[in-house]
Design brief:
about 35% helix, Udp-n-acetylmuramoylalanyl-d-glutamate--2,6- Diaminopimelate Ligase, Chain: A, domain 1, globular, 10 helices, 2 domains, about 20% strand, 6-stranded mixed β-sheet, about 270 residues, alpha/beta, 5-stranded mixed β-sheet
Length: about 270
């Protein structure tokens, strides 16, 4: 089917309007009139991902993180990391589509909450766009707060995170013996969720990219943090996107990038 028609179907589930104002989602490179038979899905747009997509003969590459954000691009050359990747996509006639914070708000936050078995979940930060809420038929926001079925220690919570998110390790701010009941989950970089989690009275925040001083601030305010990594909290996107395309039943060949954490502990 034509790329434009496929993207319209995807956007029925993940409308671009649901993305945050700073974000850059949608078709960022390539042709709307490209015939699409083979779709490659990844979290990031590394050169390794593009090489795999080219080798497989992909028509469309879908990723979570956009190759281009809203900062102006002054030139596209092979001496620039962004330019080098864009050139290779264009040379190989691969259309490229990004689904980022619209997926965080509409799916990824709920996926994290479900993996942790949270109950009585609510939005961490209410959405302030009534027009969007009316269009979607429900409120949306990045981050969820809910309760575990039973109180556990922070150490036990870390083990659950490692198991459910397929991680070898996590970083932790807090007393490992602390009792955990109320949990906030926020995909990707979790700095912006620290203050709302404290204000909501959460026992722990599960997110990624927590800086030293943010962890100290949280600890002084009674909030523990489990840093599961940016990739660790968001690689769920890959399988979720594959399941959506399969559900659409569009007779597409679908290939996903292997789960491979870019940052390793040695």
């Amino acid at each position: 089917m034509m790329c434009k028609n496929l993207l319209e179907k995807i956007e029925e589930t993940f409308p671009k309007e649901a993305a945050m104002s700073f974000d850059n989602v949608g078709l960022l490179c390539g042709r709307y009139d490209k015939e699409v038979k083979k779709v490659f899905i990844s979290l990031d747009v590394s050169m390794k991902v593009i090489d795999e997509a080219v080798k497989w003969g992909a028509d469309l590459l879908i990723t979570h993180h956009p190759i281009i954000m809203r900062n102006p691009i002054e030139r596209v050359t092979n001496e620039d990391y962004i330019g080098k990747r864009l050139i290779k996509l264009i040379q190989n006639d691969i259309s490229y589509y990004a689904i980022h914070t619209n997926h965080d708000a509409l799916s990824l936050s709920d996926l994290m909450a479900n993996l942790m078995g949270l109950v009585d979940c609510e939005l961490l930060i209410p959405n302030e766009n009534p027009g969007l809420i009316l269009k979607l038929g429900r409120d949306i926001s990045i981050g969820r707060i809910g309760k575990l079925p039973n109180a556990i220690s922070l150490k036990e919570c870390c083990e659950i995170v490692k198991d459910k998110f397929n991680l070898s390790d996590v970083r932790v701010f807090g007393n490992l013996d602390k009792e955990i009941n109320t949990v906030v989950v926020s995909p990707g970089s979790g700095k912006s969720a620290v203050v709302p989690a404290i204000q909501a009275g959460a026992d722990v925040l599960i997110a990624g990219d927590i800086l030293h001083h943010d962890g100290l601030e949280a600890g002084d305010s009674g909030l523990s943090i489990i840093d599961a990594g940016h990739y660790g909290t968001e690689h769920l996107f890959i399988e979720d996107m594959k399941n959506l395309l399969l559900k659409l039943n569009l007779d597409l060949d679908i290939k996903t990038m292997d789960i491979e954490h870019p940052c390793k502990i040695v």
